[in-house]
Amino acid sequence: MTLAYPLDDPRAARPASALSDAFDRHGVRMAYARNEEIYAQDDAVELLYRVVRGVVRTSRVTADGRRQVGAFYYPGDLFGLEPGPDHRFGAEALDDCEILVVRRSAVRAAAGDAELDRAILEAQRLEMERLQDHVVMLGRKSARERVASFLMSIAQRGGDDHADLAMGRQDMADYLGLTIETVSRMLTQLQGEAIVAFPSSRRFEIRKWTALEALAA
Amino acid sequence: MTLAYPLDDPRAARPASALSDAFDRHGVRMAYARNEEIYAQDDAVELLYRVVRGVVRTSRVTADGRRQVGAFYYPGDLFGLEPGPDHRFGAEALDDCEILVVRRSAVRAAAGDAELDRAILEAQRLEMERLQDHVVMLGRKSARERVASFLMSIAQRGGDDHADLAMGRQDMADYLGLTIETVSRMLTQLQGEAIVAFPSSRRFEIRKWTALEALAA
DNA sequence: GCCCGCGTTTGATCTGCGTCACGGAGGGGG
DNA sequence: CCCCCTCCGTGACGCAGATCAAACGCGGGC
């Protein structure tokens, strides 16, 4: 059985223990293939999900086909806890991944209600902060700044100076509110200025942290 | 003493009673002048606020002076319950207004912890849905669509076909991620197509609901 | 190795919105 | 009543990013 929280993962200790226990005892391990749907936009909210392996993206597609990616979730992250009765964003597997799924009612039965609420509250805290930052980025940042911010956040997650992009350019674009071409251009631009280096299209290394930080605003 | 929840206000019955009671018993009524700061960006989060009269906006200003408005709050709305230890958006009075303020710890003492959490959860639900919609709007909608959505949401609040804009063009622009000029142009455009009518710059009436709905996407 | 298919990059052009500049309206104070 | 000040609308223009189009890798299958 794969360890859900690798020991070197800073998020390992994060979730409240009641919730963690519930996952361990009542969770069902599911496997999803690349681009497979985990839950659909407008599905009822009744489960909690935790990424074990792989990366998950949430997205919302408008009636006329425009897509906005809401977030990316990495191993250890909780997702699917949208506040309303049904999901306003769908969730899909970015690559092949394993997910722990638990019924909310099972968690509620296992832990005290108060404890459950607190655990969800904490996860929602992260979610809301992400949303707030996303709003500011989409509302007020240039394409260059958005791409820089994105690379920064990915790099911070890894801790190291270089990191892998789990997603392709289209997913980046849909997260950043840009087109795939603009994302690509900004990446080459940043490379040209030797701020980042891309040994391959999915792998990058930050060369000038201060320059990138300044751009990320 | 002004009645906090006018009887004809559909939001009157919304907040959980424990929280409502706490406001009534421990709340302090504060008055703020137009553009006065209620709390600052980066202030510690320790109070809960409820609008009694007037309108409040939350906003975040970046280091280089760009401003993003997060939300507008109307009488009956709870605000200030950001999830982190400190406020990522500041709050200011849009016009002269009265606010009920209560210390979180007072609420916690008055109600059971679980009850408090549930009440906050419910308010956060609204907040998160607002944020999600905001992200989609800023990421994927055109200027015309943003302005249309905004007018729709204002009109729905009033219920009636015509409504007052509590805010000026600059606040709209900063909420919609646009410039004041673009907002102005879109408004004249919509007027030109007889979709809305503006008897004065702060007051409007929707003439073609279906057309506006189609635009709001 | 070679071919094929998909994701990415790059180029050319277009356009929606931002920027800059100015004129007008409204309304509060003297 | 008039002035001034702030907010709003409009016009001309420029540019960032979208769109359209094509070429370039790179990895997998044969």
Describe the protein in words.
2 copies of one chain form a homodimer. By secondary structure, chain A is an alpha+beta fold. Chain A folds into 2 domains: 120 residues, Jelly Rolls, CATH 2.60.120.10; 76 residues, Orthogonal Bundle (Arc Repressor Mutant, subunit A). Chain A is built from 7 helices and 11 strands. In chain A, the strands form 3 sheets. The first copy, chain A, has a 4-stranded antiparallel sheet. A 4-stranded antiparallel sheet of chain A has the order 2-7-4-5. In chain A, strands 9-11-10 form a 3-stranded antiparallel sheet. In chain A, a hairpin with a 2-residue loop joins strand 10 and strand 11. In chain A, helix 4 packs across helix 6, helix 4 packs across helix 7 and helix 5 packs across helix 6. The longest helix of chain A has 28 residues. The N terminus of chain A is likely disordered. Chains A and B meet through strand 5 and helix 3 of A and strand 5 and helix 3 of B. Chain A binds a DNA duplex (30 and 30 nucleotides) through helix 6.
Key phrases:
homodimer; 217 residues; alpha+beta; Jelly Rolls; Arc Repressor Mutant, subunit A; four-stranded antiparallel β-sheet; 7 helices; 24% strand; disordered N terminus; DNA-binding
